[in-house]
Amino acid sequence: MQNAVSETTTILLPASKIKEGFNYRRRYDPVKMASLQADIRERGLLQAVTVRQVENGDYQLIAGGRRFKAVSNEFGPDAMIEAKVVLMTDAEATAAMLAENNEREDPSVIEDAEGASRMLGLCNGDRDEAARRLGWSKNKLDRRLAVMNAIPAVRDAYLEDKILVGHVEILAALRKEVQERVIQKILEAPRKVTVEELKKTAEQSLLSLDSAIFDRKDCESCQFNTGHQQTMFDTYFEGARCTNKECYESKTENELDVRRNALTETYQVVRIVRPGENLTVQPVRAVGPKALGDEQAQACRTCGDFGACVSGVPDKLGNVYKDVCFNKTCNDEKAAAYAKSLKDQQKATANLPANDVQAQQSDAGPSEKAASEGVQEQSDSKPVIGSEPRGAIREYREAIWRTIFKMAVVKLPPVQNRALLCALLVNRPSDMDKYGSLEAIKKLGFDFGASLGGPEFLQQFLGLDQGGLSSIMQQLPAHLGVTSSITEICGYLSLLDVHLENYWKVNETFFEILTKVEIDAVCVEIGLADACGKHYVQLKNGSKKDFIKGVLNVEGFEYKGAIPALMRWKK
């Protein structure tokens, strides 16, 4: 997004510079459109449309689609249109678009659903936040999103007034291949199929035992299995179907939970994804659509938003999708950054003489050669952007950093120790752990009671020689700044050249906090995976307990100094 304009300004733009496509509206009342066009022909455009500027210098239409169409139809692409240019995020633009659409002319259920699905993706799957931004009730949002499982042909048929919203709601509950067959029959039928007729057919399809994802062993002898009718009646349903909807749906939900729970030890986030939530999940790919590159894709594996999902969508019910991201905004940013780095690299290569390009390729390593040949490897022109790990890892990491701070400062040379003491006193003059300080002094052989007052303390200190006083002062910085932010703590440690590898190494407690995929990412990063050799895959595919035990007992591996990025001082 360019910043060539202020946050809100009104300008005149030729219609050709305004691009449609962001607004989901596809159906307009022809009578109202004709009336609006006639009004604009007579009086001109009385209210500006809303746009935002995009990278190529054009403008994207956010609100005012009917007015824009009316002006364009009446006066052509060179018509000058008054436009209010606003700086908006995708979420803000979607909310503004939906609000104006509802204010100007009631949008269809389908159009509302498509807009709601887009907003949910921008809110990373948070339905409460999406409903708040749209100004809708949670119930309205849920009902609109449920419609999104209807295939495009069903949605188009509704927008073309060939079926009713009741038809759409029923068809949305069916598997997509069933929808394709049913909507074709409905459109080809000599008379319109009623909603009630379709509902009766759909109920049978929804409860097909052949497509159930749960164990059907108990269903074989169940009285609600219509397969038994084949031996008792002349007229019966083809195949085996369940007439106990509550039981069927309960077993389905239980099976979805079982599949989800089976992944929780391996992944940081595991969700059951429902209809309308498809935009909240993004595959983490090193190559292909929205690629991140090898290094970034590997770094994402320790992110708190990395995980897997189980599909709760009818046509993919029960399918498991691994290695996905649940933070759409972050994923889009990283994919865009990687795409730009590749493009910049290709431009740089294109400007070199042919001999230099060949020389570079012959001297390049595998990643450089792959990039020069258009293969999507991680570019060195942009650093890998680490994402924040889960809360449990952050808590563990902060506790380790604070402990190391206390251990390290008492070992500092006197000049550095006193400098730190001065910095802490100036920054946080009253922030001291009194009892911790006295306990540390006591361990040095000086027993000062905690009940003493200031003069009594001074009397005790005056009785010390220079060596005793120096020993006590050496302890004090460790107990000052106890409420310092972790950023300050890391800053002190970095400036004092304290090295994490001198105090900490990967261990069982650390690995137990991680998921299996996080352990795998750490092992690949620090070289443990390579050190395990051919046995690593077997360890990774086994239980978490055996995985940890195996990677912590690799003969010949130097664990000291092998520090993963997520544990290093936070900059």
Q: In percent, how much strand structure appears in the residues?
A: 5-15%
Q: Average pLDDT across residues?
A: 82
Radius of gyration, taken over Cα atoms and rounded to an integer in Å: 33 Å
CATH class of the largest domain: Alpha Beta
Structural class: alpha/beta
H/I helix tally: 26
Number of spatially distinct domains: 5
CATH topology of the largest domain: Conserved hypothetical protein from pyrococcus furiosus pfu- 392566-001, ParB domain
Uncertain spans = 1-6, 364-383
Please tell me about this protein's structure:
There is one protein chain. This protein has a five-stranded mixed beta sheet, with helices on both faces. A four-stranded mixed beta sheet has the order 6-8-9-7, with helices on one face. It folds into five domains: 8-158, Alpha-Beta Complex (Conserved hypothetical protein from pyrococcus furiosus pfu- 392566-001, ParB domain); 208-242, no CATH class; 263-387, no CATH class; 391-498, no CATH class; 508-567, no CATH class. The protein has helices spanning 30-43, 65-75, 90-104, 109-122, 127-134, 138-147, 152-159, 165-171, 176-188, 195-206, 245-261, 294-299, 328-350, 354-363, 366-372, 391-409, 414-427, 434-443, 454-462, 466-475, 486-495, 508-513, 516-526, 528-532, 536-541, 544-551; strands at residues 8-14, 18-19, 49-53, 59-63, 80-86, 269-273, 282-283, 306-311, 320-325. The protein is extended, with a radius of gyration of 33 Å. A hairpin with an 8-residue loop joins strand 8 and strand 9. It is an alpha/beta fold and 571 residues long. Residues 1-6 and 364-383 have low confidence and may be disordered.
